[in-house]
């Protein structure tokens, strides 16, 4: 009986230690947020085509380059240096869906790959130009170097004015590394 009690006590103590210990297989998550001003963003290419079914319906392909001049270090201590976004939009009077792909480069040369989707709403401003607001989600799908196994989710809010070639972004993200 004494051996049974000692065995049970040891087993319960071991089980309790396992429950109290941090879960070593849990993936640590890093949270970030940032703003990229219009001065650090440039549309390098755009092609818009009228669909022809109703007035104002266009499909568009574009390329956007961002420079991260004042980026904060991420959880690995690295800052982003630049980002390239290539995307598509299907707009009626600049309202509708947009989607595409992005690649961010970090100061050590590693890259993070992303796939994004969302929608835009556009209003006419006092000067007659059209200001748009994009709301979207981004899925981090991998990368190079340290970021081969990176996965993440990001929420973006972008204000844009295609007439003025303006684009500024506010974003927050959470990422982790798959093991």
Give a quick precis of the structure:
This protein is mainly beta. It is built from 1 helix and 9 strands.
Describe the structure.
Strands 1-9-8-7-6-5-4-3-2 form a nine-stranded antiparallel β-sheet, with no helix packed on it. The chain is elongated, with a radius of gyration of 23 Å. The longest helix is centred in the first third of the chain and has 19 residues, at 2-20. It is mainly beta. The chain has a single domain (30-177), classed as SO1590-like (AOC barrel-like). It has one helix spanning 2-20, and strands at residues 30-36, 41-50, 57-67, 80-92, 95-106, 111-124, 130-143, 150-161, 166-177.
Notable characteristics:
179 residues; mainly beta; AOC barrel-like; 9-stranded antiparallel beta sheet; 1 helix; 9 strands; 59% strand
The overall number of domains is 1
- Name the average pLDDT: 88
Radius of gyration: 23 Å
In CATH's first tier, which class applies?
Mainly Beta
CATH homology superfamily: SO1590-like
Which regions are unreliable across 5 or more consecutive residues at pLDDT < 50? 4-25
Q: What percentage of the residues does DSSP assign to strands (E)?
A: over 45%
For the secondary structure, the number of strands is 9
Characterize the largest beta sheet: strand count, sense, and whether it forms a barrel.
9 strands, antiparallel
Q: Count the helices. How many?
A: 1
């Amino acid at each position: 009986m004494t051996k049974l009690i000692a065995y049970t006590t040891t087993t319960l103590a071991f089980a309790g230690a396992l429950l109290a210990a941090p879960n070593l297989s849990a993936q640590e998550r890093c949270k970030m947020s940032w703003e990229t001003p219009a001065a650090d963003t440039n549309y390098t290419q755009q092609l818009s085509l009228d669909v022809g079914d109703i007035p104002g319906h266009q499909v568009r392909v574009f390329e956007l380059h961002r420079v991260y001049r004042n980026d904060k270090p991420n959880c690995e201590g690295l800052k982003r240096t630049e980002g390239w976004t290539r995307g598509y939009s299907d707009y009626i009077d600049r309202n509708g869906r947009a989607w595409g792909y992005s690649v961010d480069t970090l100061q050590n040369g590693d890259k993070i790959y992303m796939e994004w989707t969302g929608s835009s709403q556009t209003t006419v401003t006092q000067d007659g130009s059209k200001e748009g607001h994009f709301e979207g989600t981004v899925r981090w799908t991998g990368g190079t170097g340290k970021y081969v196994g990176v996965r993440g989710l990001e929420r973006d809010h972008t204000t844009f004015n295609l007439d003025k070639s303006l684009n500024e972004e506010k974003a927050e993200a959470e990422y982790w590394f798959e093991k």
